[in-house]
Amino acid sequence: MHEGQIDLLPGERVIWAGQPVRRPLFNPGDRFNVPFGLLWLGGVTLFFFYHHDTAFQLAAWVVLTVAGVFHLVGRPLIRCLRLASTTYAVTDGRVIATSSLVGRKEESALLAELDDPVVTPGPGKTGTITFGRLGVLAWASANFGAGSGKDRKVPVILVGVSEVGKVREKLAKAVDEARARQTPED
Q: What does the angle CA 68 – CA 70 – CA 75 come to, to the nearest 5 degrees?
């Protein structure tokens, strides 16, 4: 990735840019989704095994089964594909995550307003960087789009970052410098 792919604000400079090198199929939010999907499919299959007399019941079974399979496989697959089309950038004022799976979607946050970066280690030297500690519900919100409109504050999460320790240090320094610029001098 290079600076030409990043929509920079006037006077903004890039400190770090990269993309996910590891794209996990499952994340902590799936601790609920996978068992729910399995129960859904089991319940739908059992119910329609005994109630398959009409064409409507068979059509409903197909639709509900497809919904269950999408819940189990489709969402993680779409998340993995979205990460494959994602790029990250840290400037002297913002952190930016851009995805182009379907259209271009950019999420950004001002560094001065973020909590300190926290690393969740992954395999090798990869990991996930969040700003502050996120619980499972916040992680699920970021990955599944819970909430809507202005009341939804999506946390910026950098998933599958290579050399995560070095990137975290650059982020921590950038956050501290952005906070210092925001603080009025006495």
A: 130
CA–CA separation, 92 and 54 (whole Å): 63
Rounded distance between C-alpha atoms, residue 72 and residue 128, angstroms: 23
Instruction: Please choose, from the candidates 78, 100, 63, 99, the residue with its C-alpha nearest in 3D space to the C-alpha of residue 33.
Output: 78
CB atoms within 10 A of CB 150: 6
- State how far the Cα of 44 lies from the Cα of 131, in Å rounded to an integer: 40
Contact by Cβ (8 Å): 40, 71: yes
Q: Return the structure tokens found at 132.
A: 């502050």
CA 97 to chain centre: 9
Give the model confidence (pLDDT) of 111-147 as tens digits. 888 888 988 888 788 888 888 766 655 555 555 554 4
CB 130 within 8 A of CB 118: yes
pTM of the model: 0.68
